[in-house]
Amino acid sequence: MTAFTHAAFLRAAARVGDLPPPGPPEIAFAGRSNVGKSSAINALAGRRALARTSKTPGRTQTINFYALGEAARLVDLPGYGYARVPQSMRAQWRELVGGYLRSASTLVGVVLVMDARHPLTPLDLQLIEWLGERPLLALLTKADKLSRSAQAALLSDVRRQLGRNNATLFSSVTRQGVEECRDLLEQWLGAGRENKKPPVKGI
User: Which domains does the chain have, with CATH numbers?
Assistant: First the structure.
């Protein structure tokens, strides 16, 4: 049994003032709108509807916190990059997510969820630069849409571009990469509880 099996919704924050006080180690999930963040969280937790999924891009505009018992938290950041979102909402996203990242003293790493068919878009690269030295795992979702050879070529290319950070193929449909991702994130959380630097490589 893993910490992920104890996942439960904690709260949603629509404003910086709604953010919960610092607590146990946290892992944040980021990515473009409708890229599969909620599906990835559900797959890791072994639940169907812990995080609500939607086919409408840009629908989630809050930071959603999930408690893994009392030992850790998962943080689902609102998706970015949907063209039809008004400029005012984009500004709100920057304020909210920026406020979270500035105040997240227990954040041990970020999972950047990307569609395996469209990885490392300019906005993804901008986020990576914004995150600075924080440990990063690029989760290449919907990998089941690619052939085996295309998966191997993609993974090699993304890992080359990420340098010190890691990447793994992932599918919430076939469960490809679920166990490997969960194991690495538990290493991150364990290091956070011991005030150690989380391992970057590991998959």
Answer: 3-193 (3.40.50.300)
Contact at 8 Å (CB) between 40 and 29? yes
- 141-193 pLDDT, tens per residue? 999 999 999 999 999 999 999 988 889 999 999 999 999 999 999 999 988 88
Q: Cα angle at 14 between 86 and 118, to 5 degrees?
A: 55
Angle at 80 between CA 77 and CA 81, to 5 degrees: 170
Task: Reduce the DSSP state of residue 133 to 3 states and report it.
Answer: coil
Q: Which residues face 13 on adjacent strands?
A: 63
Residue-wise burial string across 17-32, b where 16 or more C-beta atoms lie within 10 A, e elsewhere:
eebeeeebbbbbbbbb
Residue 79 carries which DSSP code? Answer: P
Measured in Å, how far apart are the chain's first and last C-alpha atoms?
20
pTM score, whole prediction: 0.90
Q: What is the pLDDT of residues 27-51, one digit of tens each?
A: 999 999 888 898 999 999 988 778 8
Name the residue among 27, 75, 24, 78 with its Cα closest to residue 182. Answer: 27
